[in-house]
Write a structure and sequence with these properties.
There is one protein chain. By secondary structure, this protein is an alpha+beta fold. The protein has helices spanning about 40-45, 50-60, 395-435, 440-465; strands at about 1-5, 15-20, 30, 75, 80-85, 95-100, 105, 110, 120-125, 125-130, 140-145, 155-160, 170, 175-180, 180-190, 195-200, 205, 210-215, 220-230, 240-245, 255-260, 260-270, 280-290, 300, 310-315, 320, 330-340, 340-350. The protein has 4 domains: about 1-110 and about 140-155, Immunoglobulin-like, CATH 2.60.40.10; about 170-260, Immunoglobulin-like (Sandwich); about 265-350, Immunoglobulins (Immunoglobulin-like, Sandwich); about 420-465. The strands form 7 sheets. The protein has a 6-stranded mixed sheet with strand order 4-12-11-6-7-8, with no helix packed on it. Strands 14-22-23-26-25 form a 5-stranded mixed sheet, with no helix packed on it. The chain is elongated.
């Protein structure tokens, strides 16, 4: 850019001088009045040589300490960028914005570049603000704000344009997949700047994938892969690929696919009774899970058909047996299948007898509760020798047996004493009689016999007295 001074036409106040600038496209801009840097001594004088005036302007501008103030700007592709340049204390010196290609956009309030996307927002001696709408990646770069003092002072602001990533797509999903297959899901997004981040989720829970980034001009293409062996638990699971990027703020881009897995059925029998008894009602349910859904289940008993169709009723996957009896004992089998395979489960039924109610006479007496062994005492007539009568019932059977034996021994002892007393008394009389018979004096013998009889009588009396 060139700065030069040319004279204006003469007016009633004398000759007038104006300062003009020429851009790289040979576009010329001039002050409509005398610039502040031109002293009054030069304003109404005759035209002076350019070199002389330039030296005068430079010497005066060196005393000015004003610098333009700018800020870096970040905008999303397709958005609008506002570029502001300010001067705190400006003495009527013009401001100018130019793009990274050094093309003048605005000189003061004058538009220089014919671009409908660029508009003037505010123009004054202290501020120059312009807007660039529908920003593209090519608009990114360093913009310059110039303050036309002598020398010209500049400040540079960098415009950053964020590339918005495209909505992601999930590839590699083959529906339906078979249980045991290995599949690779791929999520890809392009157009991001800087490179976007891709995250995987399985039913809302984050899982790890493999990320790959490729540059394409100013933007990036990001791809993430997820490898896995599928099983029946993956059937109906939602896999989500989410793209996070600074340009998306709080609303990320994402794509979701629901995986379908086909697998052979699995069968389980559930029953309603734990101890089935005669006369009861019982239901067996054949729970089968498979994809595709298994065909209608098949019920059998002991390897053959159900024997009693009147009492054994099949409805869908349920087998109902009414009024159980002993003939229902056996092994019941449920079988389900689809085109991927067959599975079965078995249940062994044993019907228990109905418990009979015992007659009242046969009912065992209730067990007596343990009595309280704490002695009851009268607070006014306390007698420690008195015990609770119920305590006598606490003796063990051994004590009763010992008491009986002692009573028998005492009774036998008394009987022996009585018999022995009678025996001794009787034999004592006989001895006296024999002794009397051996004496020479017969009368004395008779007397002895009489005495013996008398003694015998006395012995009876003694015995009776003893008793």
């Amino acid at each position: 850019m060139d700065v030069f001074i040319e004279s204006s036409g003469n007016n009633r106040k004398g000759y007038r001088t104006k300062v003009c600038t020429t851009s790289s496209h040979s576009t010329r801009f001039c002050f409509s009045q005398y610039p502040a840097c031109v002293p009054p001594s030069l304003r109404y004088s005759r035209p002076l040589p350019l070199s002389h005036i330039s030296l005068s302007l430079s010497s005066l501008a060196g005393s000015q300490g004003q610098f333009p103030i700018v800020q870096n700007v970040t905008v999303t592709e397709g958005g609008t960028a506002n570029m502001t340049c300010r001067v705190e204390h400006n003495d009527n010196t013009s401001l100018q914005w130019s793009n990274p290609a050094q093309q003048t956009l605005f000189f003061g309030d004058k538009k220089a570049l014919r671009d409908n996307r660029i508009e003037l927002v505010r123009a004054s001696w202290q501020e120059l603000t312009i807007s660039i709408s529908e920003v593209t990646l090519s608009d990114e770069g360093q913009y310059t704000c110039s303050l036309f003092t002598m020398p010209v002072k500049t400040a540079k602001a960098f415009l950053t344009v964020l590339g918005v990533p495209e909505k992601p797509e999930i590839n590699g999903l083959t529906n339906p997949a078979m249980e045991g297959d290995q599949i690779t899901l791929t999520c890809m997004t392009s157009g991001s700047k800087p490179a976007a981040d891709i995250r995987w989720f399985r039913n809302g829970k984050e899982i790890k994938g493999y990320k790959e980034v490729n540059a394409s001009g100013k933007t990036f293409t990001v791809k993430s892969s997820l490898q896995m062996h599928v099983d029946r638990d993956d059937d109906g699971v939602a896999y989500t690929c989410r793209v996070d990027h600074v340009s998306l703020a709080t609303i990320p881009q994402q794509a979701t696919e629901v995986l379908e897995v086909q697998y052979a059925p699995r069968v389980q029998i559930k029953h309603t009774l734990t101890f089935p008894q005669e006369g009861q009602y019982m239901k067996l349910e054949c729970v089968s899970r498979g994809n595709p859904s298994p065909d209608p289940v098949l019920w059998t008993k002991d390897g053959g058909e159900l024997p009693d169709r009147d009492r054994m009723i099949v409805e869908g996957r349920e087998l109902t047996i009414t009024s159980l009896n002993k003939t229902d004992n056996g092994t019941y089998r449920c079988e389900a299948s689809n085109h991927l395979g067959t599975d079965h489960d078995e249940y062994k039924l044993f019907v228990y007898d109905v418990p009979t109610t015992p007659s009242p006479s046969a009912t065992p007496p209730p067990q007596p509760s343990l009595p309280d062994t704490t002695p009851l005492t009268d607070p006014q007539h306390s007698n420690p020798a008195v015990t609770d009568p119920s305590a006598l019932e606490q003796h063990s059977p051994d004590h009763a047996l010992i008491g009986g034996v002692v009573a028998v021994v005492v009774f036998v002892t008394l009987c022996l004493i009585i018999v022995l007393g009678r025996y001794l008394a009787r034999h004592k009389g006989t001895y006296l009689t024999n002794e009397a018979k051996g004496a020479d004096d017969a009368p004395d013998a008779d007397t002895a016999i009489i005495n013996a009889e008398g003694n015998h009588a006395h012995a009876e009396e003694k015995k009776e007295y003893f008793i």
